[in-house]
Amino acid sequence: MSRVLCLFVFLLLGAPARSQQCPIVRDYWPTNGWRHASPAAENVDSAMVDSALTLFATLPANVYSAMVVRHGYVIGERYYHGKDSTSRYELRSATKTIVSILTGIAIDRKLLRNVDQPVVRFFPEFASRSDSVDPRKARITIRSLLTMQSGLTWVEGHGNEYLGYQPNWPVAILSQPMQADPGSKFNYSSGNAHLLSSIVSRVSHETTVAFANENLFQPIGFTLPLLEWSTDPQGVNAGGAGLNLTASEMAKIGYLFLNNGCWDGKQVVSAKWVADSHKNWSNPGKGSGGYGYLWWLSVTVPGAYAAEGHGGQYIFVDPTHDSIIIVTAEPNSGGDDFEPVRTLINPAMH
What we know:
Blueprint: H1 3-14, H2 18-21, E1 35-36, H3 46-56, E2 63-70, E3 73-79, E4 89-90, H4 94-108, H5 124-127, H6 142-146, H7 159-163, H8 169-174, H9 190-204, H10 208-217, E5 244-245, H11 247-258, E6 262-263, E7 266-267, H12 271-277, E8 296-297, E9 305-309, E10 313-318, E11 323-329, H13 339-348
Parallel strand pairs: 1-3
Antiparallel strand pairs: 2-3, 2-11, 4-5, 6-7, 8-9, 9-10, 10-11
Helix pairs in contact: 3-13, 4-9, 4-10
């Protein structure tokens, strides 16, 4: 066989094609910015979308931004209360979802073995403490944290009572008494998410935000300034809240998951992780559609799921309609009103 023919066979069979690495095909990728289209061009009712965006301005939640993406094109975008496309918003608990994605990337990169690794082994400074003796703590796994089933005592909204003046947040979180066996009961906890951020930082030997920039944010087209993600006293980026993104950046996160972790020929996070992330792993209780790996499953839209933050921060991913909906609001306004999406935007898509 000639050298040229050998080279041809290698290129044909031995070198994986770009499409094989990441088989999602789009007519463009919004790495350098979103393209816009009319709702009608993407088979969406224009009047209903406009009504929803107008209604957002009147809600008590003090909505700051709303953005609708269909088939990769922005078909509706509105800013309120002096905000614009450059404004960054505090995601509150939607930060947890970003930490989940980074956990998946760490597993993809072989920095973590799998979701069944025990958590305590990542924190040797805790193992020697007297409050580590409950044998159930040794059974807390990465999966337990991702599904809010660690069993550790935590009342969400009272984090300062657990962490105030504590120099080592992971130790303070792990030192809480067990209220249930790991994997047995849902209990929403920013502490669980902060343990995950700490683990990502420890196994990658860099800050969580640096790991995110290199492995998640930059591949989809942006770099987060370091000060846009708050830290604990040890400099670990907060896992439960504290991340600030623009509406466009939030939409890119949603679009990455809408495309099964693929972005312009590169598998940023594995398709398996994306699929596992929105499986129903735990039950938050009545009125919930279920809970995945720090993603909330939709009650009203089959197959849809969302990153949600207190006060009205949403990254809503709807694979059935190939759409993403972003909402941000004043976190302290007390509102979590997502009703225009349910009643106007989703029904507008054909």
